[in-house]
Amino acid sequence: MPTQLSVFMKKQTIACLIFLSTIANLSFGQQTTELEKRALSPSQLFIKHQGQYEAFKSLVIRFEVAWQEADAQSMVDLKEVLGKMVAEYNGLSYPTAEIEGKLLERAAQKAQVFAELKKLPISTDDTALGPKVEQILERFNQYMRLFETDILEHQKAIGL
Predict the structure, then answer these.
(1) Measured between alpha carbons, how far is 24 from 130 in angstroms, rounded to an integer?
(2) Residue range 100-145, pLDDT digits in tens
(3) Would you tell me how many other CB atoms lie within 10 Å of the CB of residue 158?
(4) Is residue 53 a contact partner of residue 148, using CB atoms and an 8 Å limit?
(5) Hey, how many other C-beta atoms are within 10 angstroms of the C-beta on 45?
(6) CA distances from 130 to 61, 67, 127, 134, 137 (A)
(7) CA–CA distance, 143 with 116 (Å, rounded to integer)
(8) Are 111 and 92 contacting, i.e. CB atoms less than 8 angstroms apart?
(9) Are 148 and 106 in contact (CB under 8 A)?
(10) How distant, in Å, are the alpha carbons of 12, 50, 98 from that of 79?
């Protein structure tokens, strides 16, 4: 039978281990918020945008796979995530003034695509899912082309 002292020591050891394991996470969290506050160079911003595009593209591919597998719940979830990404990406900033006018033109086009996407809700109970999904995929692909063009313009502007 354990004594009160051994139980107390076990509790202290466990509490100490939990505390020590959270220190690394707290430190990393502070570092990432400091990095977010720091202004990115044009090439760092380009790499960030390129990564965002690749993440978006991979989710669109997953959306297509869910459609092929007739997984309506995954399509609903992925459409929601992709819609949030589109809303976030519409606010991306690019550091070069040269491409600002072209970006503004495409920003209006991207906003229009996003508005059309919002008008195409899907649910697991939807009986006419096929035609809606085709329209949604068309809009996602249209948005990807606009996003890709932004990235290419950004790449040219910074000389990569």
Answers:
(1) 47
(2) 667 777 778 888 888 888 888 877 777 777 788 888 899 889 989 9
(3) 17
(4) yes
(5) 18
(6) 16, 8, 8, 6, 11
(7) 11
(8) no
(9) no
(10) 47, 21, 33
